[in-house]
Structures are given as C-alpha cells and as structure tokens.
Amino acid sequence: MAVFASLVVGADGSTTKGGNSRAITSGADRTAFLARRRNADFLLIGGETARAEPYHRTPVPVVISSRSMINSLADNRLAYWWNLSPTAALAKGVKKFGENVLVESGPTIIDDLIRSRALDGIYLSITAVTGGEKPIDIAALLANFTEIDRKEIDGTQFIEATNLSKLEC
C-alpha cells in the first residue's frame, strides 16, 4: 500500500491564501501535483477541502471524509462523501478502489493520518508566496519523517519525506 499526502505551502507555511490553495501554488507545483494525481487509485480529502478547492472533475475517485453531509461535489460522479474519520475513510477507500492513495487534504487530516501511522510519506511543495492563512510549522511536519529528499524547480522547493519516525507523533 502507498499512502502519500500532497501539500503546497507558502514560504511562511501558509496553507491557504484567499480561502484556498490557488494563490499559493506555482506552475511547477501544479504540474507535479496533476501528474501524481493521475497515478492514484483514489484521492482522500476532507469536507473543508471539498468546499474550497476545485474537485468537481477528477481523473480518479475522490473520497471525502466529513462530518458535514452537505455534498458540494454532487456534480462529480467520482465523488464519495463518507461520514467517517480520515483513517476509516482511508481503509474503506483502499478496499473499494485500491491501495495507491493520494491525500490532498489540509493539515488537520494529514496530522490525523500521521498520528495513526497511516501515511507512507508526504510530497511537500514550498513556493515563494507569503502572507496567507492557516500556517503550519514546516519543520515540525517534516520531523515526523526520517528520510527527506529536496530539490528545487523554477523557484519551488519540492520535498519528498518518507518513513514515519519511531518517535511519538
């Protein structure tokens, strides 16, 4: 099973700007993001992400883990809105769609999956954008992993972090 999260943040750790990630992403990040997405068996997101980001068309099924059953993706025939915890939605999605999972949620669900030891790794893109909202501590996030590879493309730093550390998350 391969369960990876994908997250873009600004240089100051901002995860949104103007209510979503569009103003934080870069061209290089968008290209990498879309390539990863096409190779997944399904995407896992939360209700807040479903309401804020453009998930009305996806190349693979998208599972929404949300307590709110207000389905903002009713027009996406590949959307499955489940009132389950992120780990339960992940397990159900693996059984239904396959083991290659891309988690495209915000930091709350990513943190939950780290605590439950359900992630194999994270693809983190850091752009030059600053002044956004909902910042995370990038160093604290990466401290959860033991192997970290970094590269830079067109001003965007790409980090692939794998192997959850044995430390308490």
Short overview:
The protein is an alpha/beta fold and 169 residues long. The protein has helices at 27-38, 47-52, 86-97, 107-115, 138-142, and strands at residues 2-9, 42-46, 62-65, 79-82, 100-103, 121-126, 145-153, 156-164.
Q: What is the CATH architecture descriptor?
A: 3-Layer(aba) Sandwich
Helix content: 25-40%
Number of helices: 5
What is the name of the CATH topology? Dihydrofolate Reductase, subunit A
Strand content: 25-35%
Q: In one word, what is the shape?
A: globular
State the domain count.
Answer: 1
Order of helices and strands: EHEHEEHEHEHEE
Task: Explain what the structure shows.
The protein has 169 residues and is α/β, with parallel strands linked by helices. It has one domain: Dihydrofolate Reductase, subunit A. Helices cover 26% and strands 29% of the residues. The protein contains 5 helices and 8 strands; from the N terminus they run E-H-E-H-E-E-H-E-H-E-H-E-E. It has an 8-stranded mixed β-sheet, sandwiched between helices. Strand 2, helix 2 and strand 3 form a beta-alpha-beta unit. The chain is globular and about 35 Å long.
